[in-house]
Amino acid sequence: MTAGQKSNKPVALVTGAAAGIGKATALAYAKSGCHVAISDVQADKLTAVAKEIEALGVEVLTDVHDVGDEAAVRKFHQRIGAKWGRLDYACNNAGIEGAQGATHEMSMDNYDRVMNINVRGLVVCMQEQIKLMLPHGQGAIVNIASIAGLVGFPEMVAYCASKGAVVQITRSVAVEYAERNIRVNAICPGVIKTDMVDRVTKQDPETEAAYAAFHPMNRMGTVAEVADAIVFLSLPQASFITGQALAVDGGMVAR
Ligand SMILES: NC(=O)c1ccc[n+]([C@@H]2O[C@H](COP(=O)([O-])OP(=O)(O)OC[C@H]3O[C@@H](n4cnc5c(N)ncnc54)[C@H](O)[C@@H]3O)[C@@H](O)[C@H]2O)c1
């Protein structure tokens, strides 16, 4: 390519891409032939993921920021527009579990923090993504919700509220932009073995077995199983699917 010429490969974006589901998704987009923009608060791990993406022969853009920082989120998306002039797929994955505990004793700072990152941050991301997608008359957004957005779990009121909001935001925005060919779906993972789950189970074998037993398949999911579903919902194979909240949960919410 000559200088100044922009590649016509699709461009994908993943937030929270330094680890876990986000990292697996960024690599899966790269393997499918996309250039990839990745963001996270963990600078060193993000750089390592960027190297893995580049080794797959596509371009990468990294940005270290907190997804709850509105100005930084907007600037990141502007960098994507400046670099590639387009955005085809976006996976809004960055999220936190927050503190668990009795609702009547919960700190409202915890509630505000979880809602700011998991909900407000995601909405700001979506605003900027839609701005990049509208001029091209196409795009697909996949928001990472949770089975905690579909059913209630005790002592997790902030997390459940945030993920329920992500499901409804997905439906609302999907309906609004359907005619303009921007699809919006959510993935609701069951328990997936990542750093987030290790923080909760403390890798105690008995606790891990109990978490596995939540699922009719009697195991936790893998990050690859979630990433594959995200890439499927992004690509044109899913062209008539929008506004859905797909549980990737070994059958948990089916019972
Ligand atoms: N692991 C599970 O069982 C599970 C289940 C359902 C939903 N989810 C959701 O999937 C998403 C990813 O979870 P995971 O298990 O891979 O988590 P993880 O903690 O292993 O990884 C999350 C990544 O996001 C980054 N991140 C966290 N807060 C951020 C912020 N404010 N700004 C930017 N980056 C931030 C972290 O640094 C990390 O790299 C989250 O939204 C989570 O709620 C996870």
Automatic annotation (TrEMBL):
Gene3D superfamilies: NAD(P)-binding Rossmann-like Domain. CDD domains: SDR_c. PROSITE patterns: ADH_SHORT. Keywords: Oxidoreductase. GO terms for molecular function: oxidoreductase activity. SUPFAM superfamilies: NAD(P)-binding Rossmann-fold domains (SSF51735). Signal peptide: none annotated. Belongs to the short-chain dehydrogenases/reductases (SDR) family. PANTHER family: DEHYDROGENASES, SHORT CHAIN, ESTRADIOL 17-BETA-DEHYDROGENASE 8-RELATED. This is Short chain dehydrogenase. It comes from Aliidiomarina haloalkalitolerans.
